[in-house]
C-alpha cells in the first residue's frame, strides 16, 4: 500500500519489555569479531565474564534477542516489502553504561517519514528505561525503502558531517569473517538478505551482505580499542550513516579525526577501491 505520512508520523508503536544476560553480551561481542586475541586483557573485556564491559552498540540488539522470525516493515500508514529495505542511519545515546545483565522497557515511535523521490526514509526513536523508569539509552534509526517515494512528503534537511581538512589522526584496519553475517544473525536479526543467496539476488545483490548494524558495532569497537584504550564506559553516543554495503570476509578501513570530545569517523572497503561503508559518523566521549 502507498505510504500515508499522516497516519505514520508520530505513531506510537507501543512498549517492548526485554531482558539480557552476560551470555547475550558475550555472544554479541563475539559476533562482532571480539576475542581474536584471546590472551589480551583488553580483548577479554569483551569476551570473558570476569571483567565484562558492554559495548554501547549492544543497545541495537538487546530488544530483539529472542526474536527468531524475519522482521516485517508494517507500521501505521506503512507496509513495505522487506526486500526493498536497507538500513539508513543509526544512533545510540547513553544515559549510563549498559549493565552486563538487566531488564528494560522500550517505547518506540515513528518520528518522521521523508520523501526522497525514488525512495522513502522512515525515522524511528526508541527510549529505553529500566523497570523503575530510570533512563538507560535512546536509539534512533532510519530505514531506506527503495521505490516507496513520491507520496508527497517533505524531503528533509541534510545532516552531513564536515570533516577537518587534514590527515586523519588514526587509520584502523579491521578484518571481517566470511561467516560474520551468519554469526551476527544469532543476535536477533534474521533478515534473509544476510544469509540466503536467492533472497539477496532478488533484492539486487550478488551475494548476502553483512548487516549494517554488525558493521556499526565492528567500527565502534575498532575506534574504542584504538583511541579510547578499549574503555567502553567513555562512550556517550555513536551515530553513523550506512553509505554502502559490506561483503562478509572483506576488510574495513576506518579513518578517525579528533575534534574535542567528538571522534569523526568514516569507514571504507579498501578491497573495492575504498568504497564508502559508513559516513557522517560521530562518536562522542566523556
UniProtKB/TrEMBL annotation:
It comes from the Bacteria. Pfam families: MaoC_dehydratas (PF01575), MFE-2_hydrat-2_N (PF22622). GO terms for molecular function: (3S)-3-hydroxyacyl-CoA dehydrogenase (NAD+) activity; 17-beta-hydroxysteroid dehydrogenase (NAD+) activity; enoyl-CoA hydratase activity. Belongs to the enoyl-CoA hydratase/isomerase family. Residues 163-263 form the MaoC-like domain. Gene3D superfamilies: Hotdog Thioesterase (3.10.129.10). Residues 18-147 form the Peroxisomal multifunctional enzyme type 2-like N-terminal domain. InterPro entries: HotDog_dom_sf, MaoC-like_dom, MFE-2_N. This is 3-alpha,7-alpha, 12-alpha-trihydroxy-5-beta-cholest-24-enoyl-CoA hydratase. One of its GO terms (biological process) is fatty acid beta-oxidation.
Amino acid at each position: 500500500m502507498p505510504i500515508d505520512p499522516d497516519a505514520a508520523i508520530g505513531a506510537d508503536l507501543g512498549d517492548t519489555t526485554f531482558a539480557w544476560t552476560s551470555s547475550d553480551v558475550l555472544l554479541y561481542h563475539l559476533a562482532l569479531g571480539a576475542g581474536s586475541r584471546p590472551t589480551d586483557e583488553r580483548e577479554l573485556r569483551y569476551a570473558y565474564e570476569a571483567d565484562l564491559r558492554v559495548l554501547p552498540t549492544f543497545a541495537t540488539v538487546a530488544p530483539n534477542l529472542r526474536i527468531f522470525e524475519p522482521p516485517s516493515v508494517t507500521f501505521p500508514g506503512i507496509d513495505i516489502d522487506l526486500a526493498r529495505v536497507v538500513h539508513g542511519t543509526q544512533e545510540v545515546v547513553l544515559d549510563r553504561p549498559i549493565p552486563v545483565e538487566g531488564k528494560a522497557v522500550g517505547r518506540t515511535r515513528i518520528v518522521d517519514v521523508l520523501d526522497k523521490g525514488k525512495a522513502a526514509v522512515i525515522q524511528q526513536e526508541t527510549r529505553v528505561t529500566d523497570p523503575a523508569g530510570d533512563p538507560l539509552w535512546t536509539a534512533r534509526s532510519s530505514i531506506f525503502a527503495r521505490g516507496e517515494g513520491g507520496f508527497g512528503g517533505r524531503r528533509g534537511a541534510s545532516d552531513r558531517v564536515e570533516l577537518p581538512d587534514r590527515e586523519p589522526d588514526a587509520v584502523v584496519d579491521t578484518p571481517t569473517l566470511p561467516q560474520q553475517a551468519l554469526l551476527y544473525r544469532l543476535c536477533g536479526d534474521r533478515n534473509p538478505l544476510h544469509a540466503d543467496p536467492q533472497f539477496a539476488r532478488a533484492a539486487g545483490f550478488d551475494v548476502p551482505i553483512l548487516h549494517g548494524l554488525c558493521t556499526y558495532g565492528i567500527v565502534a569497537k575498532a575506534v574504542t580499542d584504538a583511541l579510547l584504550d578499549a574503555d567502553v564506559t567513555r562512550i556517550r553516543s555513536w551515530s553513523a550513516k550506512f553509505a554502502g554495503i559490506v561483503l562478509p570476509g572483506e576488510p574495513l578501513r576506518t579513518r578517525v579525526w579528533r575534534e574535542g570530545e567528538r571522534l569523526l569517523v568514516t569507514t571504507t572497503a579498501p578491497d573495492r577501491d575504498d568504497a564508502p561503508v559508513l559516513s557522517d559518523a560521530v562518536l562522542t566521549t566523556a
